[in-house]
From TrEMBL:
<feature type="domain" description="Cupin type-2">
    <location>
        <begin position="28"/>
        <end position="95"/>
    </location>
</feature>
<dbReference type="InterPro" id="IPR011051">
    <property type="entry name" value="RmlC_Cupin_sf"/>
</dbReference>
<dbReference type="InterPro" id="IPR013096">
    <property type="entry name" value="Cupin_2"/>
</dbReference>
<dbReference type="Pfam" id="PF07883">
    <property type="entry name" value="Cupin_2"/>
</dbReference>
<dbReference type="InterPro" id="IPR014710">
    <property type="entry name" value="RmlC-like_jellyroll"/>
</dbReference>
<protein>
    <submittedName>
        <fullName>Cupin domain-containing protein</fullName>
    </submittedName>
</protein>
Length: 101
């Protein structure tokens, strides 16, 4: 079975759950100048895909300037804080780490 979701239909919150279950998938919508406070996602690998706009993504003490089409993968143990340079939409996937590591 396939699940199909249109990101434009997810309007209820800035952090809209795209699908139920794992891997957790979130549509993040931020207005220019809006950001998310520094936080972590322990136990996951994070895939951060900028769909539209431009964001500055801070990982620990490193800063990345991201544009539409850019994808970043990082360990959820890192401190992360995105901030929108322009009105932006990103899809964030939280892949649970394997217990086999």
């Amino acid at each position: 079975m396939a699940e199909l979701v249109a990101l434009d239909d997810l309007t209820e919150t800035p952090h809209a759950e795209v699908f139920d279950g794992d891997p957790r998938t979130v549509r993040l919508k931020l207005a220019a100048g809006e950001g998310v406070a520094t936080h972590r996602h322990p136990g996951t690998t994070v895939l951060f895909h900028v769909v539209s706009g431009a964001l500055t993504l801070t990982l620990d003490d490193e800063t990345y300037d991201l544009d539409a089409g850019d994808i970043v993968r990082f360990d959820g143990e890192r401190e992360v804080s995105p901030e929108a340079v322009d009105d932006s939409v990103a899809v964030v996937v939280f892949v649970p780490n394997s217990d086999d590591d």
